[in-house]
Amino acid sequence: MKAYKGFKNNMTCRGFQYEEGKEYHEERALCCDTGFHACEYPLDCFKYYEPADSVYHEVEQTGDIDKSEGDSKVASTEIKIGAKIGIPGLVQAAIEYTSKRCEKKAENHNTGYRGASSNTGDRGASSNTGDWGASSNTGYRGASSNTGDWGASSNTGYWGASSNTGNCGASSNTGNCGASSNTGNWGASSNTGNCGASSNTGNCGASSNTGNCGASSNTGNCGASSNTGNCGASSNTGNWGASSNTGYRGASSNTGNCGASFSTGEESTSYAGCVNSVAAALGLNAKAKGVKGAYIICAEFETDNDGNYRIKGIQLHQVDGEKIKEETYYQLIDGVMTEVD
Q1: H helical segments located in the chain
Q2: CA neighbours closer than 13 Å in the CB half-sphere of residue 241
Q3: What's the CA gap between 334 and 312, in Å, rounded?
Q4: Distance between CA 144 and CA 128 in Å, rounded?
């Protein structure tokens, strides 16, 4: 059985040390008691391992299996630890997980349970309002909407839109200038087109945008927001969430308690908007700031003999309002945390 497992950053779970590629065995499997635990639905991992200080891996569970009645958690007597998977990968896996559980039918509009709606024409629309349904639109300037629980909505056309408002649903838009929105708990929203947007407002959800000049936003607790496009933005406002931006001159912001904001793009910015949250500026000429009581991390780079950039040093400081001022950007320059515009 393919599943997904969360670990602390050091690859431990409940004090047990795991390694990628290794296989493990226990004598008995009982959910919430004994055995190796993982989740079939990728985003359920966020309920047990918060994105701010965790890593996630694909796993294979075999042997005796025991499933939870509350969510997709599974306990097994045997487990093999597969490859590490990032937030965007979890989002895509969640979309695929949901879509595979929806029955496919030919109607263009469906309001019943487990139905499907599909439109492939230009300027068309597709809508499904039943539980476990699916809605898909691949036409130019089309739209796709699913409002039922556990549903999925997908739009691959230019300037299209995809929306899913049901719990545990998923929304995906891959067209240029498109938009993807998911407002249900434990949902997922993904947009891979240029100038697009991805938004998730449910608890324990995730939002991912990989297009240039795009945006990704997550406002639910324990959620995650990721943007990998140039000049994009990533924002997370829920507690224990995470916001990541890897694009050139992008921005990453986290305003929830105990959350984290990571910016790895060149000349990008990172902001920690709440006490005990962390802003990490880990890109070339990147900068970070935070409110009083937050922490900021800055990296300094140097060039090697081949002209390649490498990290020279990293420092972490708490914003105390004196040595490190609040709401002020800092860079690590010549080993000193320095105020910058």
Answers
A1: 87-100
A2: 36
A3: 9
A4: 8
* Count of CB atoms situated within 10 Å of the CB of 203: 21
Q: Are 183 and 173 in contact (CB under 8 A)?
A: no
Nearest to 42 by CA among 204, 283, 254: 204
Calpha distance 211→76 (Å, rounded): 38
> One-letter amino acid identity for 334?
D
pLDDT in tens, 61-77: 999 999 998 789 999 99
How far, in Å, CA of 175 to CA of 197, rounded?
11
What is the length of the chain?
A: 341
Report the alpha-carbon distance of residue 240 to residue 261 in Å, rounded.
Answer: 11
**Which pLDDT does position 216 carry in this prediction?**
87
Exposed e or buried b for every residue in 255-272, given b needs 16+ CB within 10 A?
Answer: bbebbbbbbbbbebbbbb
Tokens 């966020």 correspond to what residue? 46
Helix (H) or strand (E) holding 91: helix 87-100
Q: For residue range 208-220, what is the model confidence (pLDDT) as tens digits? A: 888 888 888 888 8
Is residue 39 classed as helix, strand or coil in its secondary structure? Answer: strand
**Separation CA 23–CA 169 (nearest Å):** 32
Give, rounded to a whole angstrom, the gap between the first and last alpha carbons of the chain: 51
Determine contact, residues 236/256, Cβ cutoff 8 Å: yes
Do strands 295-303 and 309-318 pair parallel, antiparallel, or not at all (unpaired)? antiparallel
Comparing CA positions, the residue from 131, 214, 219, 215 lying closest to residue 183 is 219
Question: Would you say the pTM of this structure is higher than 0.70?
Answer: no
Beta strands in 122-275 (DSSP E): 125-128, 134-137, 143-146, 152-155, 161-164, 170-173, 179-182, 188-191, 197-200, 206-209, 215-218, 224-227, 233-236, 242-245, 251-254, 260-263, 269-272
Residue carrying structure tokens 């009982």:
30
